[in-house]
């Protein structure tokens, strides 16, 4: 028996475990100090009432013979896919319910989608980036090209026709930088993908944080995208589902490689290696898309965005350089005068007792940067701001 | 961009869709006839009260800031892995909580586990078999050897040292035949795997139906198995979780390929491509392993086993040849005098209005056989028996 040797090429992901270790050490030495965590991108607000109501009701259904549900469709129940299709219409995008695949989250689908592509494809990945894009391709031994995301391009790299890519990762609003592509910029990417016969894997996990009608919330708002893009969406940050697990992926019918529809390949992958999302979770997810649910989750998103606004206001006041924090829960901060990401991490932890994420953990272009998240409770954010100001 | 061409080698799985089509046609032509479905292996009894109570409580936790849960450990919460470890102790098996990975079901893990193995491995698969073993390996272009399961070996094929296999699938109690390996037989498989440096993927999804203390419910009851086997378990049939989605996979620490622990590879796979099972589902799963939960799920399992006993009693009375139905919800029936599986399907549908699954859908050795499931309501089973007896 032979293992997949590509796994041995993976770098150990020490980022969050190193952070946890350093914070634990600090807390041990300073047991009375209140540490404020703006590091991990995890939500803190509870599930909204529309969602918990749906969970209770669906649980009751599952406890009674007449309404009990066994195996459901692997692709997700029609009631949920229909509401998602309607949601797309709400931002002027036509996505048919049968193009939507309900999943347990964008992370699963972003990894599993690679199963339908040959190992012999060149992958184009921005740097810095969500580490899952890189690791899942190392596991399959694909050639990876990086595109530089830096201050010069506002962390929004654009196509380079000298590079021949087959699979292109785009994440907008971006994790970790919070940068958002405009429609014109995405149009350039769609044109490039069509010209190169490449596919765009579009990670839209943070689309619900976009507050500007002119910015695209879906790549399908761009003409031609249905012929070259798969879109990954998540309810994790949209509705506080990081521990409840539900997302959806759109594979348009028009998306083909020669005669083969990628939709049929993904359907085959999902029906063979997946058995769908729990019925009660799908009922909970559907509740998010009701008018009541939308109202309630918007309140939570606004709460986080208000956190971000308070933070960016303070950073501006302090004369610090940053991007993000407007259509994103992430603020991408340039470290204090010439500090490396980890030096700045130590500095903030020791001097202000604030935990963030060193940008270098997301790629080489992240060096000298630092990610703060706007998730968390208001009083913690206000206290963090006080401490940042006192540092000055 | 190139697709994974292996997907084009997959045969379309027409089995259950063909059945559905034929039943729909029959129902259209005979709208007043009550068709009894003993075809698909799906549970019908509702979730037990211990489980729905846990779901309600966990939902309440998720609706309150103080007890809300965001991202959990990808491997599953310790509270659940501990109870599963205790459950193993109950059938005299030592499995550490850290060797257990909680998942959304055995189907996902049986497919995904292949990611940690090289494509260049020879796979040994029984015929007939659960089609997922075959399809997931075709997707990765692995060489597949089949082992014959037939009347001569009571549908329990044994190792052949002339065959060099790297990855071996065993399913006991078996789907579709209901056959169960004894400890001595499994010991032969473990010895073979150790001699060949092969790995056994042991599908124990139906272990809870074993009623005989001397039959192994886990491959780890066999000495040496921890050095050569991964075990896949499911709560789908055990606790009616087909629509609630939770299972667990055991990767022992001792299981190695050279210096590399497979546990570390699977942990890396899961942390990179999976984000864990919903918190509320894990709380529901933990409730199954409480004394109250065990009592309640055993009542459901006994209900299905009583269905099976009524069916096998009737088949015996009718002089029909079959196996299974004792430690399994499946009865594997020899078709009436020389009929093919599909001929018998038509015969039973037209003459008795009973739907089963043609054995040929599970592999060439399934030809001439027919699978009946014991899932369903008692009155349906009793009516089916009446009709079978009237056919004679």
TrEMBL record, chains A, B:
Keyword Transferase annotated: yes
Functional pathway: Amino-acid biosynthesis; L-lysine biosynthesis via DAP pathway; LL-2,6-diaminopimelate from (S)-tetrahydrodipicolinate (aminotransferase route): step 1/1
Residues annotated to bind pyridoxal 5'-phosphate: 71, 106-107, 130, 175, 206, 234-236, 245, 275
Transmembrane domains' residue ranges: none
Reaction catalysed by this enzyme: (2S,6S)-2,6-diaminopimelate + 2-oxoglutarate = (S)-2,3,4,5-tetrahydrodipicolinate + L-glutamate + H2O + H(+)
Residues annotated as domain Aminotransferase class I/classII large: 35-388
Residue numbers of N6-(pyridoxal phosphate)lysine PTMs: 237
Names of required cofactors: pyridoxal 5'-phosphate
InterPro entries xref list: Aminotransferase_I/II_large, DapL/ALD1, PyrdxlP-dep_Trfase, PyrdxlP-dep_Trfase_major, PyrdxlP-dep_Trfase_small
Subunit description: Homodimer.
Record's protein name: LL-diaminopimelate aminotransferase
Source organism of the structure: Holtiella tumoricola
Encoding gene per record: dapL
